């Protein structure tokens, strides 16, 4: 098991050897500057462990060789030491090629402009790939090109991108808009279910599976912050190829500690690693490391269109509540209206229309992946004729969903057959067949009485029911209201959802930023895991019969206050354990 990478080992050796020699020279020859030689060599060695610097150095070697050849020709006797004709012709040819084509001068001689067409097939030749690139280095552009190409071929593509924007990933199922880690977590849970299902089918003899692409951008911020994310990454990297589950991961560096893979660096051997960088002329190249041989080659990155051009903000629709609607507050207990709608969306194709770009956390959390299919609707397509009408708009942080259907179909979609017998078209108040304190959604559909939390008298035929909901975090909160209105003729019900994302209450407005939020979450998760390990250790120590906290603390250590709390909360030892101790 490899604990560190080769670059990290080389960097450590350079610091240890060069620093040791420099220290000895300082002691042996005080006042002399000779110690700068080994120190400079150590710094140069550390610099060469960075792939970008190695690429720059490698690009200058052909020019240095050509210059050295000219110097040797100018010296006396240089003609006798000249290279053979065939080799002498090759050297100037390489130099002139570098001078004539400066775009290729910063990459090894084996790289040519034509190899830009070889990069994509090379990356797609393996099930999994790791794309490395710093900010604005072209990493996301390359991943975007491959993902949208797979989607155009009819393959299923799941994208986890905390920087996703409306229309950025056409044809793909996208999660993570605005650092929405909850939606990414739900998507990874669906992937886990799919992995288990395919593994079970393979055990029964199935060998062919439709391709499933999992694309994770900014994985250094996403995977460590999601519970079970690293485990799923490792599982797919090792065994996902047999299930035709392909993974494309984008990171900003390949340090194992960045991905949280300390002690598991061998997992990266299952991925085709491509380090995307720019040379001095601004041309993007990809340093490819073969997953089997480990040999590095340099391939030019083709000129790809900027995916940012696909971002298209959705123009909002304007609307107001109809006059005369009566709102009833929603209880904290019982089934939620949004839950019923989420189930309905999963079964009714008419509700799977998505106006791309809606970023309302509450609605996205309730509807999940089933509500997103990347379809961009126009203003004329918003309201469709027939038994189902869907309306979803955004603008100034306001969203609006409208769905019209038959109440009986809504009850069926809710998966509660016991309530079907309660529905009687035309019934005014079947209170005898409704359980006490009915759900406002069902009460509205059944035209039953709903008591008001404000003490208002019961209404025999309530006009509407609203579901206020407030979701808060450190920086912002979202308020959602759901209104269910039965039609006057009893033939249907209208469900409306209004969601508004409001600014935070902190001075200066909300503090946004993926790095800060995710970093705080990782720190909190690590602290909770450490505290849980400490609690388990002290609980086991006390259960084993250790007589006092002082002795346990001397053996286990940790934060004294947390350790004492864990010791006091632990169950006392049994008599057998005490006697054994």
TrEMBL record:
It comes from the Bacteria. It comes from Candidatus Viridilinea halotolerans. InterPro entries: P-loop_NTPase. Residues 91-109 have a biased composition (Low complexity). Residues 77-115, 452-489 are annotated as: Disordered. This is Uncharacterized protein. Residues 461-470 have a biased composition (Polar residues).
